[in-house]
Amino acid sequence: MTNEELLKSAIKEALSSCGIEALDSEIAIERTRDAAHGDYASNVAMRLSRKAGKKPVDLANELIGNIHSDNIEKIEIAGPGFINFFIKKASLGSIITTIIEKGTDFGQAEPNGKKINVEFVSANPTGELHLGHTRGAALGDATANLYKKAGYDTTKEYYVNDCGNQVAHLGNSIRCRYHELFGEPCELGDDDYHGVGLIKIAQEIKDKYGDSKLVDNEETKAFFVRYGIDANLAGIKKDMADFGVVFDKFSYESDIRKGNTIEATLQELKDKGYVYEKEGATYLNTSAFCDDKDRPVIKADGCYTYFMPDICYHYNKMSRGYDLIVDMLGADHHGYINRMKSALMMKGYSKGALEVEIYQIVRVYKDGEEVKMSKRTGKAVAHRELVEWCGKDAVRYLFCERSGDTHLDFNLDLALAKSKENPVYYAQYAHARCHSLLELGKDIGIDSTGSKLSGQKESDILKQLAEFPSMILSAAEARAPYKVAGYIQKLAQTIHEYYAATKIIDRNDLDGTKARLGLIQACEIVIKDALAILGVTAPDKM
RNA sequence: GCGCCGGUAGCUCAGCUGGAUAGAGUAUCAGACUACGAAUCUGAGGGUCACGUGUUCGAAUCAUGUCCGGCGCGCCA
């Protein structure tokens, strides 16, 4: 148990012996900024003063009379009613033993029995991934990693839209490019894909099949569609693997459409009275739940809209026993949230069974000007290009560093020009420094008790390390990988400061050296593990 | 018009279930390697938390009204 957890339960006990029952969420423990305020502080007395019917300071006084712990050096009341805790140095140091024993399992919460599905990227297999997908991939993967670390049984999933208009246009575009290769002019429509990547695919087909696909009939149409989807999907999978993202499951719209799943689902919704016809189309009464208008599920031409199979897909996910399904979507899809939640509610699921994480657009700047991206013109800044230019680690870190709620301005010049300006190197360097110290001090050995560490910087580091497990839980709860990045930056900074101010390896002071190396080893473990959550590697040497 | 997201230092952003003097990075300026990696460290300057009103012991944080920016509002996906 970390000191934070100990304090929390001690406060809870003190409260109840004062006759106050408090929720866990009402008891906040925070690390202090100012050493004069002790190691940890709580505002619980101010927060609960109204509930207790007492002045904050009086309540605080009463509470500290009831708090007993061997780990506490002293307790003070300050300001309007803060309770400041000073922890015994030896007790702060004990976290090192825990970290070294547990290794990368430090911060790993016990399985909590909850299943979560995180669906992300899910780009249509009609072309290359672009920057928007990069953000979705970085955030989605890190979010899923966070959930795993926080004790959830987590699945990473990709939904492949391999049906419908978009893929028909894909097939047509490839067919056009193929014809061009034989000198037959072929005009691409406005809705077709103009990306040059498709020329390569057409060339592949020509190499494999010669001119045998020049005839235009239903069979060759389907062939071009299938070939295009497979080729693009293979490319996407490779791009994602190179980016460190491996999905546990791929689901296909074509599988959802197999059999009579869609018809049966629609019938079920009809039976419940949520379906009606208007002007030749069929509508779902989503506004009866949390949508602001009803949505069509069958067009007047008899085809399903994209929405209908999507509903079936989400029902399919829920039927697999998840307590929560999460969709990561770009900001242009936010209108989608309430209609899908409504559809799930029709089936009896709660509104919170689906959470949609929206991330705002990425703007790219090059030579001081914004680069507009467009999937169809072929002038997009492709995911693959970006990763080739800046490296996987830098891109993943920079895309995870900010909340998805904010627009991300990605300065390509900066990312390309000097790698050292990327904050990821700051963290990786801290790790490399730790590693190199441990190599140098290999023959000296390590004291993992932490009992000899008494400096201010050392206490700072120990408290930061102890904070790791609770940081994981709150970051997972908030689906906020950027909190991990923030944690990494602070820890790296403290490590660098410590290093600059302290001679870690001192052969005239072997006991002290062993203790410091113990601390350094704990740092190495935690910073590497934190980076791994974001999908960033921690090299031993740089 | 309606809805969602944002507006905090020159720039990019944390902080938002109300708490101590609003923080980082970067940029600018001034310093530090014959100690373990200077991809680092130390210090300085830099703020009307977009604006008004309200709630209270206390508001960047909550409510409300404006202003500005992005996105969405399709029988597209």
Q: Topology, pairings included?
A:
Layout: H1 3-17, E1 29-31, E2 40-42, H2 44-47, H3 49-52, H4 56-64, E3 72-78, E4 82-87, H5 89-93, H6 95-102, E5 115-119, H7 131-149, E6 153-160, H8 165-181, H9 197-209, H10 218-242, E7 249-252, H11 253-257, H12 261-271, E8 275-278, E9 281-284, E10 295-298, H13 307-319, E11 324-330, H14 336-346, E12 354-359, E13 362-366, E14 369-371, H15 383-390, H16 392-400, E15 408-411, H17 412-417, H18 423-440, H19 456-477, H20 481-501, H21 510-533
This protein binds one RNA strand of 77 nucleotides through strand 9, strand 10, helix 14, strand 15 and helix 18.
Task: Walk me through the structure.
This protein has 542 residues and is an alpha/beta fold. Among the domains are: 3-87, Arginyl tRNA synthetase N-terminal domain (Gyrase A, domain 2, 2-Layer Sandwich); 93-110 and 422-533, Orthogonal Bundle (Isoleucyl-tRNA Synthetase, Domain 1), CATH 1.10.730.10; 165-242, no CATH class. Helices cover 49% and strands 13% of the residues. The protein has 21 helices and 15 strands. It has helices at 3-17, 44-47, 49-52, 56-64, 89-93, 95-102, 131-149, 165-181, 197-209, 218-242, 253-257, 261-271, 307-319, 336-346, 383-390, 392-400, 412-417, 423-440, 456-477, 481-501, 510-533; strands at 29-31, 40-42, 72-78, 82-87, 115-119, 153-160, 249-252, 275-278, 281-284, 295-298, 324-330, 354-359, 362-366, 369-371, 408-411. The chain has a five-stranded parallel beta sheet with strand order 7-6-5-11-12, sandwiched between helices. Strand 1 and strand 2 (40-42) form a beta hairpin. The chain binds one RNA strand of 77 nucleotides through strand 9, strand 10, helix 14, strand 15 and helix 18.
